[in-house]
Each structure stands twice: as structure tokens, then as C-alpha cells.
Amino acid sequence: MTKKSGLILFALLILTVGVIFIGQNYQKKQKSELLAANNSYQKNEEKEMKETSKSESFEENRNQKSVIEYLSSLPTDDEMRSVSFYGDFSESDEWFLSVGDYIKEQVDDRIEIGSVALPEFDSYRLFEENTASSLIEKKPAIVFFQVPVYGDQVRDISLSDSKDYTMKAYETIKQALPETLIVFVTPHPSSSRKEEYNSRTLDYTSYLKVIKEIIEESNLPLFDLHEAYETELQSTDLALEKTLAEDGKTLNNEGNAIYTTLFNEQLTVPIDTTSGK
């Protein structure tokens, strides 16, 4: 073999080894990319299956799902869910704090409890002062709307105006947050406000009656805690005055305990949640 032939053979050998080496590296790279793509596909598929399963779970029995079940199965992007209380109540009310804690315990800590507390507000002020704007900014998944029947009694407005302004406040929220579930909540009874008639010969129960009627006619969710409270007092033979402060309206410790228990019980009772998301 000549020297020239040897050099050519050596060069071909080097070239062959190089081609084999490059081919092996390319094969490894392709295999690695294929495995990565497969893993990514499996993860996406598992995520989609999980989201589909959660979505199907959420949609199941929507017309007979408790608020706790609704919150627990609610599909979210960031897993953080917000619940807001709105209307005639105070942030210092013991029942408000206790119910918020109960919701977190029953669902999980990824629940944010918010509030737009407007004590003694009437339905006219709720609507005309655009109080819903503060609520809308929070974008809650659920709103508990404490109906302002005591405020309407004091403002001395007509029953038709009370009904109209309450529903206008509701519609303002719903138009801005169409996927939010809004649950109307009636207040506890009052011994001092009952039969304390205004110039229209109406007391707070008069306003309460028409509000309940329009809510029921509209097939909207309602926690009628006023009626539940009265039923509880009758079943335990307990006087209303024993559960209220001296003003005959503010709940005392016993009253707060009753209202909290009734609210928490309603959270686990199946209702029609189809007006939500």
C-alpha cells in the first residue's frame, strides 16, 4: 500500500468515526427531545383530564348543589377563590367572622373572604351610591347579599321602590359579574323594629315579605335566615329578646351563635346554583 493510499484510508476511517459519532449524538438528542415531548404531552393530557374531571364535577347537579360543594368544585385558573358579603351588616358582627372561618374550614385556605359592609343602608342608597363598584372590583365567585329591609323601613320608601332598588342593586352586580353566584340573605328578627310602623304603616317585615316574593319569583338563591331564626326560637321555646341587646335589634352572644349556626347550615343545603358560573 502506498503512502498516499494509507493517508486516504486513514482519512476515510476518521470520517467514518466522525459520522458514527455525530449520528449517535443526533440519535441521543432526538431521543431526548422525543422523551421530553412525550412527558410534556402526558403532563398536558393529565392536566386536561384533571380539568375536565373537575369541570364535569362542577356541572353535575348544578340545580341541587350546596354553596360549599359549589365552591369546592369551582374550576379556577389560579385556584384562589373569593367570597364576599355585601349589604346591611357590620364587619364587627361575630356571625360574619365565624361564617367566614367556617367556609375556609369546609373548603380550604385558598378562600379569600371579603366584605362591603353597609350597616343601616337602605336599598335606595345601595343602588344610587353605586356601592356595588367596591364589590365588583373584588370579582368574587360568590356574593352573600344581606337585604336592607331595616334601612328601607327607616327611609320610609314604598314597597314597590324597595323591591325595585334591591333588584337594581342585584342587576348592577350581575351585569358586571355574570358568572358570580349571588345568594340573598335575610336578617335576623328584631323585637324593637317589629310593629314600629313608619308613615306608610309599614314595618321591616312588610319590606321583607315583598323582597322574598320577588327573589322567589325570579328563582334566585335565598338563605331565609329570618324565618329559620324564628323557627329555632319556637322549637327551643326561647324569647327573641333573650338573643338581642338592649336596643332590641343587635344580636348578643346567644343571638350571634344562633345566626351563625343557621347560616352555616344553609351553606350545606342543596340549592339551585345555575345562576352562577
Automatic annotation (TrEMBL):
Keywords: Membrane, Transmembrane, Transmembrane helix. Residues 43-61 have a biased composition (Basic and acidic residues). The chain crosses the membrane at residues 6-23. Residues 42-61 are annotated as: Disordered. This is GDSL-like Lipase/Acylhydrolase.
